[in-house]
Amino acid sequence: MHPGYTRNNIAFTGLLTNKILSGLPGPEFSRLLSHLEPVSISTGEFIYELGQQISFLYFPESVVISQLYFLEDGASSGVSIIGSDGFLGLTALLDAPKTGYWAVATVGGNALRIRMEEFRREFVLGGPLQKLVLTYANARMMQLAQRA
Description:
Oligomer: single chain
Order of helices and strands: EEHHEEEEEHEEHH
Largest sheet: 4 strands, antiparallel
Number of helices: 5
Shape: globular
């Protein structure tokens, strides 16, 4: 946790529970801080819709997000759940700029969001952020393989 960081007079002290962001060393977190925007997301609110261009990555703090696929018969299938241990937008970071799923808040709450280009700029530098993201990507792939 990075106590004392503020942006536009908004303290991130009690807010920062996301494991990826809180796992960053001070210098890397500081570079992202000015680009992080706190958002409140309501239960049932769609964050991404199918085929939407992904402009922001979301780092859940208290919100829980489900990724859904709708089948031809109209039924839906929950593919993954994202909470404070990860982030929404991994596929866009890995060069799939449009969503292949719907993302909806199943439990309303708070998140931090950042523009894709700002996050990608830090990601391509390598270092701790890239390592945390790739470790998370590996865990997500393992979860998806287990569900298959």
